[in-house]
Every structure is written in structure tokens, then in C-alpha cells.
């Protein structure tokens, strides 16, 4: 198989995770990186052993060698850069959220289809082995039965204190929704993927726990640390939610609820989902990704361990190590990129990765959540 050349735009927290994941595929070379300015681009290229460094992403898009571009920049740049990647007729892997508004994301879906290139979005949690197993269990009415309810949460503590700061707190850089768009979007995507059901109505209560936060006068990279002196900080009003409780209605008539909280002490990145079916229930926790709980009334509950020999045949290729050899966060993007690049290379059929359509769907749900919280009522999702 010939080598496919990739370019990465943005190398903060998630950009290097993309670099590492595509390199593990074996047939993809990360040939170029783009950052804000030549100096930073060259430093990052050196650090990540990437041959070409561009101080402006437009130069990377003009590079004829690059076939696939990964957009790992902050949210406010997703729409413009994704649009330019499509105009350059390159395949695109975007970080979530796809754009800042549903008008933009709808436009990106239209442009992506017209460009005839491969378009993917990094809803990485779908590609964990036991999530794939849960998805297969839900496909078969024999295993789960009718799904009555889905409930869970996405909890983090990295924004717990009023002096925790990141660009995600600024609506102009992140969007009008924060906790829901940043992490609730993963949860909604995941439950819809696992169950095959679609969220059609929401009722939301969004809360800003810290209406004033202390912003450092210097820039801080995501997760970069928390030790700053009081004189380095200034007060800033916050208009986006730290916390949200959301009631959900699905197209099958099933019901659900989601709690998101970026101020939940001790919870680092706890995406938790529980699905109640008429024959059994399932529960999965991203922080314990190698275990899937199966709850039964008329027999003992079980914990399915991530062991290829125990997985549904269609889920087996998402596990790369034997049971007891745990797989985790970096393996989700690797499996997604395997599916995307395999399709580009012609070795996989496609249809097994999240696309711009899924990215748009998440933004439509976020819009409905924001509207519901503002108007204090149930709101239909307008896809
Ligand atoms: P970050 O702030 O750590 O990194 C952003 C990078 O983009 C920085 O290196 C910055 O210099 C660069 N950048 C900014 N403007 C640029 C420009 N004009 N050209 C080139 N580079 C530019 O942010 P982080 O945490 O890496 O998040 C980036 C995106 O990835 C966000 O949209 C976030 O929602 C998403 N994300 C997704 C994750 C997932 O699990 N799917 C995990 C973490 C982030
Ligand atoms: C920060 O909340 C963050 O990095 C999100 O941006 C990611 O999408 C999530 O997967 C982990 O947390």
C-alpha cells in the first residue's frame, strides 16, 4: 500500500494525539504541520519530527503532497479552515464541534458532499472496543430488547475553580454553549451511535457556576497547569454554562437524561452512559473503558472485559491486544483514523466513521439545548 501524506493544523493538546494515532496506522506519514507563525510551527515540527513546518495553514493547504488535513485548531476556526480544506479538494478530519453554529455546519455538510472528498469528525469515543460491542448488542432486539431509557453524565473537574482558565470560556472562541458543546456533544453522539436512536426533543437547565472567573493576562494551553500569581489575573464575566441538566426524548419514544458538569471535583473525564432495555441494561464509563456492565433481573449481572475473544465478531477489530492488556483514550482516534484512511486507500468499504453529518447533528442538538434553557421549555431539534 502506498503511503498517504497528512498535514496537521494546530498542535496544542489534541493535535499531537492525531499525529501519534495516524503514525500507528503504519501507512500514513505526517508530512507537514501548520501553527500560528513560523517560529511556533518550526518548534512543533522539530518536537514532533514532522518534515515540513508552515506558519500559515493556507501554505499547508497549497502543498500538493498533502492528501488529508486534520483541523485541530480551537472552535472558532473550524468553519473557515474546514471550508478552505474542502475548497483545496483535500480529505478532511475535523475536530469537534464542526463549526460554531448550525447555519455554518449545514453549509459545511453541503460543501463536503459537493467536493466529493472524505470528511470525518473526531467523535473518538465511538471507536473504543466495548462501545462497539454495546452498539452490536443494541442492534439485536434479542439481546437488549426494547430500549426504555438512556441516562448518564459527562463530568470533568479541570474548570472547577474560578481561576481555571482556557479559551473555551470565551464565547467568541468557543461558541454560545460550553459544557454541552464541548463534552455533552460527545455524550449525545455516543448514545445515538450505540442505540441507533435519534434525539428529537430536549428540555434543558443550564447553569454558570462561576459567573466571574479570573483570567490570566498571559495565554494558557489546555491542561497546561494552574499556578499563577493573583497579580497575573483579571476578573472576567462568564456567559456560558459550567453545568447542565438535560431531559431527552428519542425518535423511538424512549426517554433519557444527561448531566454535564465541568466543575465536578475528582471527575477527570468521566463520560458515563447507562441504557435500560427490556431484556437487560448496559453501562459504560470512559474512565474504565475495558469494562462493560450488563445488568439482568432474572440472572446474575455481568462485567464483559475487553477481550477480543469475548467481543461481538463485528466489534473484535477495534481491540488490538488480548484481554487484560488494557486499551484506552489514544486507541479511539487510532481506530477512527484506521477506518477513514482505509477508506481513502480503498482497503475498507466506508460507512464506519463519523462524518460532517454527525458533526452537524450535534450542533443542532446544542442549538435546541440553548433555546430550551433560555425559554424554559421543551424544544424540538431542527436537524
Ligand atoms: P489547544 O488550545 O491546546 O490547541 C489549539 C492549537 O491550535 C494551539 O497549538 C494553537 O496555537 C493552534 N492554533 C490556533 N490558531 C491557529 C491558526 N490560525 N493556525 C494554526 N494553528 C492555530 O486546544 P485543544 O485542546 O487541542 O483543542 C483543539 C480542538 O480540538 C477544539 O476544537 C476541541 O474541541 C477539540 N478537542 C477534541 C478532543 C476529542 O476528544 N475529540 C480532545 C481535545 C480537544
Ligand atoms: C476538554 O473539555 C476536552 O478536551 C474536550 O474538548 C474533549 O472533546 C473531550 O474529549 C475531553 O475534554
CATH topology of the largest domain: Dihydrodipicolinate Reductase, domain 2
Element order, helices and strands?
A: EHEHEHEHEHEHHEHHEEEEEEEEEHHE
Low-confidence stretches: none
Q: What's the helical proportion of residues?
A: 25-40%
Bound molecules: 1,4-dihydronicotinamide adenine dinucleotide, alpha-L-sorbopyranose
Structural class: alpha/beta
**In CATH, what is the homologous superfamily of the largest domain?**
Dihydrodipicolinate Reductase, domain 2
Quantity of strands, as a count: 17
The CATH architecture of the largest domain would be 2-Layer Sandwich
Shape: globular
Give the percentage of residues in beta strands.
15-25%
Report the biggest beta sheet as strand number plus sense, adding barrel if it closes.
Answer: 9 strands, mixed
**Strand ordering within the main sheet:** 16-15-14-13-7-12-11-8-17
* Quaternary assembly: single chain
Nearest-integer average pLDDT? 96
Provide the gyration radius in Å: 21 Å
* Overall structural domain count: 2
Query: What is the CATH class designation of the largest domain?
Result: Alpha Beta
Distance between the termini: 39 Å
H/I helix tally: 11
Molecular structure report:
The chain is α/β, with parallel strands linked by helices and 383 residues long. The chain has eleven helices and 17 strands. The chain has helices at 14-23, 38-48, 57-61, 78-87, 102-115, 129-139, 141-144, 171-174, 179-195, 331-345, 356-375, and strands spanning 4-9, 28-34, 52-54, 68-71, 91-94, 119-121, 147-155, 199-207, 212-216, 233-237, 243-250, 255-261, 270-277, 281-285, 291-295, 302-305, 379-380. The strands form three sheets. A nine-stranded mixed beta sheet has the order 16-15-14-13-7-12-11-8-17. It has a six-stranded parallel beta sheet with strand order 3-2-1-4-5-6, with helices on both faces. Strands 9-10 form a two-stranded antiparallel ribbon. It is globular. Alpha-L-sorbopyranose binds at residues 156, 182-183, 186, 269.
Amino acid at each position: 500500500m502506498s503511503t498517504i501524506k497528512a498535514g496537521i493544523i494546530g498542535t496544542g493538546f489534541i493535535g499531537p494525539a492525531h499525529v501519534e494515532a495516524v503514525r500507528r496506522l503504519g501507512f500514513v506519514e505526517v508530512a507537514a504541520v501548520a501553527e500560528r507563525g513560523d517560529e511556533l510551527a518550526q518548534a512543533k515540527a522539530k518536537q514532533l519530527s514532522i518534515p515540513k513546518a508552515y506558519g500559515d495553514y493556507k501554505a499547508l493547504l497549497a502543498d500538493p503532497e498533502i492528501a488529508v488535513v486534520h483541523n485541530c485548531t480551537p472552535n472558532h476556526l473550524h468553519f473557515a479552515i474546514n471550508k478552505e480544506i474542502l475548497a483545496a479538494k483535500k480529505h478532511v478530519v475535523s475536530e469537534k464541534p464542526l463549526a460554531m453554529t448550525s447555519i455554518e455546519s449545514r453549509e459545511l455538510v453541503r460543501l463536503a458532499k459537493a467536493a466529493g472528498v472524505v470528511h470525518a469528525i473526531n467523535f473518538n469515543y465511538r471507536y473504543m472496543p466495548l462501545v462497539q460491542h454495546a452498539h452490536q448488542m443494541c442492534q439485536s432486539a434479542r439481546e437488549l430488547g426494547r430500549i426504555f431509557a438512556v441516562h448518564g453524565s459527562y463530568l470533568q473537574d479541570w474548570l472547577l475553580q474560578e481561576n481555571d482558565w482556557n479559551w473555551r470560556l470565551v464565547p467568541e472562541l468557543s461558541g454560545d454553549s460550553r459544557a454541552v458543546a464541548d463534552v455533552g456533544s460527545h455524550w449525545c453522539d455516543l448514545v445515538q451511535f450505540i442505540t441507533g436512536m435519534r434525539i428529537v426533543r430536549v428540555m434543558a437547565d443550564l447553569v454558570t457556576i462561576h459567573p466571574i472567573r479570573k483570567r490570566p493576562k498571559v495565554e494558557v494551553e489546555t491542561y497546561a497547569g494552574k499556578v499563577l500569581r493573583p497579580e497575573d489575573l483579571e476578573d472576567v464575566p462568564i456567559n456560558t454554562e459550567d453545568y447542565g441538566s438535560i431531559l431527552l426524548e428519542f425518535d423511538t419514544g424512549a426517554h433519557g437524561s444527561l448531566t454535564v458538569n465541568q466543575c465536578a471535583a475528582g471527575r477527570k473525564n468521566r463520560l458515563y452512559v447507562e441504557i435500560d432495555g427490556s431484556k437487560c441494561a448496559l453501562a459504560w464509563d470512559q474512565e474504565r473503558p475495558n469494562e462493560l456492565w450488563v445488568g439482568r433481573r432474572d440472572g446474575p449481572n455481568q462485567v464483559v472485559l475487553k477481550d477480543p475473544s469475548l467481543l461481538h465478531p463485528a466489534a473484535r477489530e477495534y481491540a488490538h491486544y488480548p484481554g487484560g492488556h488494557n486499551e484506552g483514550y489514544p486507541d479511539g482516534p487510532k481506530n477512527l483514523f484506521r477506518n477513514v484512511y482505509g477508506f481513502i486507500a480503498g482497503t475498507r468499504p466506508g460507512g464506519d466513521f463519523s462524518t460532517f453529518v454527525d458533526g452537524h447533528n450535534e450542533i443542532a442538538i446544542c442549538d435546541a439545548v440553548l433555546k430550551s434553557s433560555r425559554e424554559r421549555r421543551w424544544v424540538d431539534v431542527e436537524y
